[in-house]
Specification:
With about 240 residues, the protein is of the alpha/beta class. The protein has one domain: Metallo-dependent phosphatases (Purple Acid Phosphatase, chain A, domain 2, 4-Layer Sandwich). It is about 40% helix and about 25% strand. The strands form 2 sheets. The protein has a 6-stranded mixed β-sheet with strand order 4-3-2-1-10-11, covered by helices on one side. Strands 5-6-7-9-8 form a 5-stranded mixed β-sheet. Strand 2 (about 35-40), helix 2 (about 55-70) and strand 3 (about 75-80) form a beta-alpha-beta unit. Helix 2 packs across helix 3. The protein is globular and about 55 Å long. About 35% of the residues are buried.
Length: about 240
């Protein structure tokens, strides 16, 4: 039970039933044996607002997470770039705590910074410009004021443009910027870092100002599931 699990970039949607089943099984079996589960963004392929909780698929995901938290497992949610509109209503429905991006934890005795990870990709100037627009409160207010059906149409259009943008960019542009990673580690006091977003799962070691820092990148769930398991002995990536 003394384990903390981290997942991100699941991109759940009704169009991907196989990986949805992997998720439901993970929540019911694996996560239920842990002390806490952190979902570091992009739980859904897209999220148009918490008023879409009546959707059958969305409700099924919330129900699975509510059963998990009901067993006493601490559950934490973070917004990603695809589900930036995930709010307190959804978190409350799941029995979860909604976290701000970039949270410093005492994780089994190790100072650990957790984040979605998109703020580290500063070489992708076009994406950072869009991120600022998507996080703007007035932009969100205007979007949420529209009918649900119109919001879904617009979100699907944005998803298509996002996929095209990734294909048009060089891989190193859409990955984290090394200088930004170093500055982030310096700013937070040289912690261990756990994040998702880039879909490039790996363990990295950074030496910053003579300090050695571990950085774990979580895997996406497009092809198969996976999670990071951390306890007092350290962290290990597990593929489902």
């Amino acid at each position: 039970m003394n384990q903390t699990l981290f997942i991100s970039d699941l991109h759940l949607s009704p169009e991907r039933p196989r990986i949805n089943e992997v998720f439901f099984d993970f929540v019911a079996r694996t996560a239920a044996q842990a002390e806490a589960l952190y979902i570091l963004g992009d739980l859904f392929e897209y999220w148009v607002g918490d008023d879409d909780l009546d959707d059958a698929f969305n409700a099924s995901v919330a129900h699975a997470l509510r059963k998990l938290s009901g067993k006493g497992i601490a559950l934490y949610l973070m917004q990603g770039n695809r589900d930036v509109l995930l709010g307190q209503a959804f978190a409350g429905n799941c029995g979860a705590k909604l976290l701000a991006d970039s949270i410093l934890l005492d994780l089994h005795g190790i100072r650990t910074l957790v984040m979605h990870g998109d703020t580290l990709c500063t070489d992708d100037v076009d994406y950072q410009r869009f991120r600022a627009y998507a996080h703007d409160p007035e932009t969100q207010r205007k979007f949420l004021a529209q009918p649900l059906a119109e919001r879904k149409k617009q979100m699907l259009d944005m998803r298509t443009r996002s996929e095209q943008h990734k294909q048009d960019q060089a891989p190193e542009i859409t990955d984290v910027a090394p200088a930004t990673v170093e500055q982030t580690l310096r700013e937070f006091g040289y912690p261990r870092l756990i994040h998702g977003h880039t879909h490039r799962p790996a363990r990295h070691v950074h030496v910053v100002d003579g300090r050695t820092c571990e950085r774990w990148v979580l895997n996406d769930w497009y092809q198969r599931g996976g999670y990071l398991r951390c306890d007092a002995s350290g962290c290990a990536a597990v593929t489902l």
